[in-house]
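Dissemination and training. As part of the outreach component of the grant, students in the summer workshop were shown how a complex can be specified as a set of sequence lines and then modelled as a single object. The example used during the hands-on session is reproduced here so that future cohorts can follow it. Participants entered these lines:
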Amino acid sequence: MISMALMDYAWLIPALPALAAAIVALFGLRTPEKGGWLAVVLVALAGALSLGVFYEGLVLSPVSWDQPFLRSFNWFTAGNLSIDMGLYVDPLTIFMLFTVGILVTLIALYSVGYMHEEGAARRRYYAELALFITGMLGLVVANDYLMLFVFWEIMGLCSYLLIGYWYHKPSAASAAKKAFLTTRVGDAFLLVGLGILFVSFHTLNFKELFAAAANGAPGVDRNVLLLANSCVFIGAVGKSAQFPLHTWLPDAMEGPTTVSALIHAATMVKAGVYLVARSYPLFVLTPQVLIAVACIGGFTALFAASLALTNWDLKRVLAYSTLSQLGYMFLGLGVAGALYWARGNASGALVALALTGVTVAIFHLFSHAFFKAGLFLSAGSVGHSFHGAANPYDMRIMGGLRRSMPITTFAMLMGTISISGIPPFSGFFSKDAILGAVYEAATESGSTLYYLLFAAGVLTAGLTAYYMFRLYFLTFEGEHRGVAWAQEHGVVPQPATRDVGLPTHAPHLAHAGPSAPPTMHAREEPSDEHEEHHEAPHEPPWTMTVPLVILGLFAIFGGFVAFAMAGGPFGGLIHASTGTATAAGGAAEAASGSIGAALAAPFGEATTYLTLLAAIIGIVLAWAWWGPGRAERRIRSDADARGAARLWQRRYYVDQLYDTVFGRWVLRAATAEDAFDREVIDGAVNAVATVNERSGERIRKWNTGFVQDYALTMLAGFIVVVLIVIYVPQLPDLLSGLRGLLPGGG
Amino acid sequence: MALTIAASWYFLLSVLLFGIGVYGILTQRSGIRILMAIEMMLNAANVNFVAFGSMYGQPNGYVYAFFIIAIAAAEATVGLAIFVNLYRVRQTIELDQVTSLKG
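and obtained this result:
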């Protein structure tokens, strides 16, 4: 059968980028763009294969939640333990493959233009990029928690390497460490969780685990399972940078913008959402965890959105928006907790609602992935043209870029509208689906907590619209300000050091070149003596603009694409947000309806208009305060931040708290341990060495090098032995006794 | 019966030969002389074997003696080759001159 053919080759999806990583690492310097094109081609092949598998799984030989496509081979056997490696392709998998496959291809292509001036170091970049992509794609097709964990860690390693790509910058090096260590906290919990699951179920295979879970997990203590699920969830919190493990993500901006786009849109943070979505059959058995998922998600959404309100750094605003949107996804994943909250038991309705939650969360993951990739790549394109400024992403030096960078502006504007939730852009449908599901869950259960979470979601929608349009107006509308203007008005320091809000970071060393005398004002080049920059803002090469245009289009039409899929055998994967969302039949009902009906469905709900109203208020406020001609009056230097702005600039002091706790107390404990290690453990080892050395020093004197001395010693020894044998009567008995002890002797 | 000698005389001869050999090894400085001393010790053992063989009327002792003679020939060859090479390198075969293993 042709239809099965592609699915059988799905293992190539992670294998191709892995191959690319190996080839680029070994021979990359001899290929065009130092391995860039090689990586792009192989990643694009993997992307195409992903699309093929997606199409096959959706249409030709549909997979379902209950009947995934499975292939596996024995990975290793140790005693009774046999671990398989293989593929698990269900609707969630193919949906992730579609999203990740397209995005990684576009981002890899964009890299070719963006990293063009990086020289031979690009080989390292492309090898790590390809390995990173391997991690995500492998994670998505894995059929086993253990295999998932392996790819999970590959991604963790690559994020460390890529965030620290410019490792000579202290800020980048420390951001890389921060990302690695913070996610490691989550990873440690995840490993513990998987250990508990293995001990309880004697398997980590998805199929076997979920089959056991569907039967109510016989023989497994609910409290043990609760612990396991909590640990798995904390792993997802770390990877997806949810509160309180969120601090690494904004700092991860230190990497190249393509890496940010990859981390935020297609990989890494999405892995956490995927993990929770994948684990939903287990999570519904302990709905307390689902409540925690929803609470963490709702809180992070609002928390991160507030941080973005006053930030001046283009990429950091986007980073906070990612946190916030991921919060939405977790909120969606946790909707089913409402039923438990209200009724205190797990029921069939709860499982159905959990599936709805997974559906809406993955829908938002999908639309967010595209518009966020578009936003980040646009930001990269902007930063590309401010290359050489102290902080090329400082929005205070921008403005008016719409005229010089129309394509970038298009992609950025589409992304902005989409994330703000304006119909008919993709972000509208997916965000509405989540909020609709939360509202349904709240009304269904009468749970106050979920009403609060819904309110947080609506408020976040308004804040999102505000800060995103603030970003857009500051960057692309009005007059071009330039570095000179910003310095003259004292809103950026000269020579600039950025990140006032980052006590953990040393000031930038790189790019802190001296600035030209301030000259007013716009349309001229952003004055800067940096040798690489002598041009006005300009559009980047085609390798960068093509992905931008595609992503811009996805931001517009992503919602339609998703709804088109809803007609397929996905059932309720896409749209189950409104009407009978809590009933198991709701999904099927939505699926059987036409695309038009699905598109129109949100507009029948009052909650939709509430969200929309919040978004519109946000946009109007942004226009009123930051619109053309008005922004300049409101631009402040970092030091001028007052009140809430100061609190947000300091990130609610969470980073400082961590610095105090881990930077001081843990450091002290570590210093003490270090002393113990060096004084006691090393001391013992050194003492043994010293004793041996000293005694050896004495004994070596006995070696005269004179052959006859040795011969004499042998003779003396021989005589002694003979004397002993003759004059010690017990010795023969003793010797025969010893012989009896020897194996085979006696 | 021809002239017979008590076995103990053979053993006395053997002890004498062995003692001379040991004395030679411990006192002589020349490598060649030490080789000769070793040969004497080996032949002391041969005398013992043959004497015991004769005493008990069994061939084992004679056979061992032949083996030892053959091995001794090989040993002498190797030893001489070593001294030839030693002489090439160090221009001496006086063993008190060759003490590079001194600790």
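Confidence is low (pLDDT under 50) at residues 496-534, 567-593 of chain A. Students were then asked to discuss how this feature might be tested experimentally.
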